[in-house]
Amino acid sequence: MKKTLKCLLLDDELPGLTYLRMLCEQLPQVEVVKAFNSPERFLEEYKSLDFDFFIVDIEMPGFSGLEIAQLLKEKPVIICTAYKEYAADAFDLEAVDYIVKPIRQERLQKAVEKMENLLKQREPLKDFIQMNTSKGKAILFFDKLLHITATEPDKRDKCATLTNGDQLILKNVTFQYLLSVLPPDTFCRISKKDIISLKAVQYFSFDEVTLILKDQRPVSLTIGDAYRQHFLELLRR
C-alpha cells in the first residue's frame, strides 16, 4: 500500500483553491490537511500541522508564493500559478514542479508522482524487519542475520540463523516476501531453499558457498544454477 502524502494548499483566490482541493482529493495518495486562502494565516498555522509538502500560488497579497517557499525551505513545494515567467525562480528554490494554470488532473498527478519519488528517497532506511516466529513477534536486525533456509517438513516456515548462533523459526513466510524486505545489496538467494548474508561468506566455488557462523563452524551450501549469476554479480560490486 502506498504511503499517503499529507499536503497543505495555499491560494488567495477562493475558486482556484476550491478547484485545486477537489483535484487533490481525487488522487488516492494525497490527503489535504488544510487549505488556506491567506498567506498570513498559512504562516501562523503551518508549524502546528503535520504535512509532507505544500502547493502554493505565486502572486498573492502580503507574501508571494516564492517568499513562502523560501521561508519553508525544509518542506518540498509544488508551485501552481497563472504566470510562466517565475519558473526559473521557482526551480532556484528547488520546487519539485511548476504547474501553469489552468491545472489539469493529469498534470497534477505527474507533479504528485515527482513529489512521491522525492519523499521516498528522503525516507530513512529501516535496518530491521518485524516477523512472526515460533516464539512470538520478533525484530530481526539485518546486521544480525546470516542465513535463512526452508524448514522440514513444513517449507512454509523458514529457519533464520543469527550472528550470536541463535536460530528462529519464521512462521508462514515466503522467500519472495523476504527478498522484498531484505537489503538487496547484502542478501542473496542462492537456491530454492536458501538466502544468505554476503558478509557471512568465507569461501565460494562455482557450485558451493561456505559460510562461517559464530562458533567458526563452516556451513556449506549448494548454489543453484538459476541463482549463480546474480550471486556472482553481487560479489563483484
Task: Give an overview of the whole structure.
It is a single chain. By secondary structure, this protein is α/β, with parallel strands linked by helices. The protein has two domains: 5-122, Response regulator (Rossmann fold, 3-Layer(aba) Sandwich), CATH 3.40.50; 128-236, OB fold (Dihydrolipoamide Acetyltransferase, E2P) (Beta Barrel). Helices cover 29% and strands 32% of the residues. It has a five-stranded parallel sheet, sandwiched between helices. It has a five-stranded antiparallel sheet with strand order 10-9-8-12-11. A three-stranded antiparallel sheet has the order 13-14-15, with no helix packed on it. The longest helix has 18 residues, at 105-122. The two termini are 31 Å apart. The mean pLDDT is 92. GO terms for molecular function: phosphorelay response regulator activity; transcription cis-regulatory region binding. Pfam families: Response_reg. One of its GO terms (biological process) is regulation of DNA-templated transcription.
What labels describe this entry?
237 residues, elongated, 7 helices, Rossmann fold, 5-stranded antiparallel β-sheet, single chain, alpha/beta, 2 domains
Overall shape: elongated
Tell me the number of helical segments per DSSP (H or I, 4 or more residues long): 7
Q: Count the E strands.
A: 15
Q: Quick one: CATH class of the largest domain?
A: Alpha Beta
When the domains are counted, the total is 2
Mean pLDDT over all positions: 92
* Rounded radius of gyration (Å): 25 Å
Give the amount of beta strand, in percent.
25-35%
Distance between the termini: 31 Å
Spatially, the strands of the biggest sheet line up as 2-1-3-4-5
Question: How would a textbook summarize the main sheet?
Answer: 5 strands, parallel
Structural class: alpha/beta
